[in-house]
Design a protein that fits this description.
The protein has 326 residues and is of the alpha+beta class. It contains 8 helices and 14 strands. The strands form 2 sheets. The protein has a 5-stranded mixed barrel. A 3-stranded antiparallel sheet has the order 1-2-3. The protein is flat.
């Protein structure tokens, strides 16, 4: 049984919303460098019933919290804003204090707000963007992509060279995952799908419609993306020291990833540039590249963290990113 419904949020919902608002306000109260400019809290409660031709009925209750905050910095060198968005199933997984503290820590030290240099660089991608960054792998592992002859993968074969570290599970049974479910829209029970194992396509995920066309068992819609922290995972500090020029992105203004081609591009909103142990704040500039071409140049790093639809290392270091800046 997977936990996807915050039962405490239903008794009554107004009290639960007020409780989360109070937690968010309390989390910012002790911050010296940040003040709260805007806070939106949304709670969606859903009930789904499926009834088939044999009068078999199944029910599913679910909840989803969406938090959107804007912080203003209290600095002598001028105001600056930070945006924080979080989606979770359960109130207990709303890490408001931890994320607020991380936002304040990011404001420590001088801020030059310069453009990053242009050229090929290594980039540290934060965990909140990892599922989107890896979305082409999910797309090419779908039964629909095989039926349409659009997948670049072959079952049992490596998805790229030199990526033995890559293990991906789609887990629709992970408690609190916003992509978790007891059953999907076709009535397929939630399950774990070991998609990529040691860099090879271990299985494909199939909705009911396309499972019949490929002659495979339906696995349902993709669940929470799980990328395990294992021996390949490095501390973030090690990555900073090993890369003399490391672009650490904190937030994108936008990040576009093509599921089919793997091409991506993004506009940097805030970040840091590590140069031989020194750090400079950057804003603006753009990054681009192709996921499939850069897969052998990726290193997973950081501790395991949960981001609502992704569970795994808190960062990826990608070498050979094209940066357009100063």
């Amino acid at each position: 049984t997977v936990v996807i419904d915050d039962k405490t949020a239903r008794n009554p919902p107004e009290d639960s919303l007020r409780s989360v608002v109070d937690r968010a306000v309390s989390a910012i109260a002790g911050c010296k460098l940040l003040s709260l400019a805007s806070l939106e809290v949304d709670l969606t409660l859903s009930h789904t019933t499926l009834l088939n031709s044999k009068d078999l009925q199944i029910n599913q209750d679910s909840s989803q919290w969406t938090i959107y905050q804007i912080f203003l910095t209290n600095r002598e060198d001028g105001p600056f804003d930070q945006r924080l968005e979080m989606k979770r199933r359960l109130q207990s997984t709303l890490t408001l204090k931890e994320l607020t503290t991380a936002c304040e820590r990011a404001e420590e030290g001088p801020r030059s707000c310069q453009l990053p240099p242009s050229g090929l660089m290594s980039m540290l991608l934060p965990g909140s963007y990892i599922k989107k960054f890896l979305s082409p792998i999910i797309y090419h592992s779908a039964a629909e992509s095989f039926v349409r002859k659009m997948s670049r993968f072959e079952l049992g074969q490596p998805v790229s060279k030199g990526i033995d570290w890559l293990n991906i599970t789609l887990d629709a049974l992970y408690d609190g995952g916003i992509c978790s479910y007891k059953f999907d829209g076709d009535g397929v029970p939630g399950q774990k799908v070991k998609l990529i194992e040691n860099g090879r396509l271990n299985s494909i995920w199939c909705t009911q419609r396309y499972a019949q066309r490929v002659g495979a068992k339906a696995t349902g819609a993709p669940g929470t993306l799980h990328l395990p922290c294992d021996d390949y995972c490095q501390p973030v500090e090690t990555m900073v020291h090993e890369h003399p020029n490391l672009l650490q992105v904190d937030e994108f203004s936008c990040l576009d990833v093509s599921p089919l081609s793997g091409h991506f591009s993004g506009e940097i909103r805030t970040g840091r540039l590590w140069e031989k142990g020194t750090v400079k704040r950057i804003t603006g500039g753009a990054i681009s590249g192709n996921l499939f071409a850069l897969l052998p140049k990726i290193t997973i790093c950081g501790k395991e963290a949960f981001y609502g639809d992704y569970l795994g290392p808190s960062g990826l270091v990608v070498e050979g990113i094209s940066v357009a800046g100063s």
